[in-house]
Structure formats: structure tokens, C-alpha cells
């Protein structure tokens, strides 16, 4: 079906499409009056406009968050739990509209968007249950008459900088633990996909989140100056950022003057290893899930697919056959499995990686070019064989729908190849050998390992990396720790 018939289903609740920022419980514009346009990546048609906020606007949002923190930190954990639970319920009740907004501004197929809404809402549910469990400890003292305890307290006002590839889940994964801990937040929404975050703000208001506790600022061209204000403003006590490693390094430098608490989830270059003792069919399915989710635009996507020599051709044939059944089109079309990339810059980067591989001797057996008749942001799902380690795709994160298949001989060889990357977010491998499973899982220099599965993300699992993929963990029982400080209290002079 040609994209010219692309149509967006109407929202059931039109008030969820907001074109203002959200500060101190009110919908506001930029003081300058300037706005930026947001476009549907499938059709390139304008969806709407949002305020192009400046440092001055952000300072005001931070001040409101600081004022709100004075009272919000004193709320009970159970009160905060109920607020998050109600927010979760409202997300579930409005799941259809939230999914529509995600597909509209991000481009991912509607089925994927619905899955993201469920995933995103579950972070509010999870942290509603973690809020009453920020336990401290009693520590036996070495001094007679002393008693030592620790308590956890909220860090304060947090700056949260979220990416466009998961417009709902990356907001809730940060906001959930922050509010559960008693913090207040200023969220910098991505310029490409602000409307989902703003819809969440509307639902948060309905859930009873107090004014000033949850604030969203929007901008596009002013992103560098807004990010700098969040990092340098002394009232902000913590920054959580999901994005590229180079930007993470810059933000870390900007935060150094005020020594903020930081949690960074940065770039990935995930290895996906298939050993010759693996179930090839299951490995193919796992590689499909790990590689092509959201058209390859996730930080945990399989980036380097290593196949042991004995099964290389069988795997490549079955993998390509599966990919040939994909249906690429606008996200609202029935049967669409993969949508457009986010913008032309992403398409250009992906094609550059394909041409680099082709020039260095690889074989593009499927895809490798834009798809005629759909629009400039649609790139074909691509499979490349004969990959070598000197190719860009091996050395850098692709963030697109390219599956490069590398051949290897031995376990030692592939572990060394997998660990050559400067980043270490996720890694995957397939094997039936129990000894090998333990060896490789422990040897891979990544923060998350998927064994005989291509999916590792869920609210109960700690999400984060090592090396230049950042530090800190999101989700899980560890996620709330990133938003608290440990305070030690010693009682002295206690008579036995």
C-alpha cells in the first residue's frame, strides 16, 4: 500500500495531544514565544508545534521543582506509591491513544507502540511497589554504647534527559524511581518525540501528582543550552541521561562543577554470538528480535552478529528468509512489521555503513538502499554477509536496520572480538553447553547478557552498562537507589 494513503487514527481523548510544555502543574509556552515543529517520520507531515524553551524557561521550571521538593520529600512512601499506581492505571486506560502518539511521532509500527506503552506503564507499577521498600540498615558498632543506623533520603531535584526511540518508556523508567524516592523532576523531552511525554504529563496531572513535582520542558534547536543549564544549575542534584556516549561525556563535564549524582545509559555495540551447538532456528528468531526491533533503533540491538563457521551458511540462509517476510511501511498500516527511521540523518548514517561494508568486500544479500515509493526515511531491512572487523559496522553503533553476519572459528576468538568495543551495554549468545554458558556469560564485558534469548529488558531487570556505555542501573530493585542518598546516624552513650 503506498504511503500516500497514510492516515492517523483519531485520538479517543483529544486532550492528550498537548502543544505546550508542562511546568508547575500548568501548560505553558516559552517566554520568547518561539516554537518548533514536530513531523511524522513516515509522511513528513507536521503533527504540531511545541515551545522552543531556553535556559531562562528551564531555570523557572527548576525553581518550581525545588519549591515542590520541600513538601514532596515529606510525603510518606505509601502516599507516593498510590500516586504512581494511579498514574499506571491511567496509562493502561489510555493505552490506545498513547500508542497512537508514539507511532505518529516516532514511526514504529502500532503493534510495537502498544508493546511500549505496556512496558512503560509497568515501570510506574513496579516503582509504586518499590516506594515503601527503601530500607536502611542497623550496623553493629565497634564502640561500646554506640548504635549505627542508615536511612535513605531523596537526592532532591533531578534533571532527566530522555531519547526519542522510546518516547514513553524512557520517561517512566526515570520518573518512576525518582518520584518513588521522594524526588521532584524536570524532564527534557526529546525534540523529535515530545508529544508522548506531554500526554504522560496530562495523565500525571489527572493522577494527582502535586504541582511542581513533575515538569516537562521542550526544545529542539536549544537542546545544548537547555541540557547545559540542567547540568550546571546547583539546584539540580542528579542527572539521568539516555543517549550517545559523546553527549554523555559532555554532560559529565558540565556536571563536574557541582558534583551531581549521575546515571548514564549510553551507546551500545552489542555482540550476538551463535555457537555451533546452538539450536539454529531459535537463534535466528532471537537474532531477529534483538536486531530489528524498532528498525534497529535501540541501544541494545544486536550490532555485531557472530556465527560459528560450521553453521554460518545455514544460519545466514534462514535469517535472510525470515527478513524477506518483513513488511516495511507507515506504522499505522495493518501488517506493517517495521516503520521508517526517525529522520534523514539516520538514513544517511545507515547507508554510509552499508557502502563501507560493500567497499571492503562484504556481500549485501538483502536491502541496502531506500525503499522506492514510501518516502525518504524508509530504508530496506538489510542483511550483509562476509563481514570483517575493519568495517564501520563492527567498530561503531549502527542504530539502524543492518544485520552484519561475521564468521568465527573458536570461543576464545569470538569473546576477544566481542570485548574489543569501547562500550559494553548488552550482549547475547546461543549455546546448549552449560560450561560454555557460564564461561562466556562471565567473560563478556557488558552490563547485561541474554543467553538463548534476544530480549533482556523488563522492569524487574537492572538495565545499564559498563565501560563507555555508562554507569548506574534503571529498573529493578536497584533503580530507586540512584535517586537516594545514604545517611548514617550514630547514637552514642547508650548504657547497657
TrEMBL record:
The name this protein goes by in its record: Succinate-semialdehyde dehydrogenase
Superkingdom to which the source organism belongs: Eukaryota
Lineage, highest ranks first: Eukaryota, Fungi, Dikarya, Ascomycota, Pezizomycotina
EC number: 1.2.1.16
SUPFAM superfamilies membership: ALDH-like
Active site: 265
Gene Ontology CC entries for this record: cytoplasm
UniProt record similarity statement: Belongs to the aldehyde dehydrogenase family.
Keyword Ligase: no
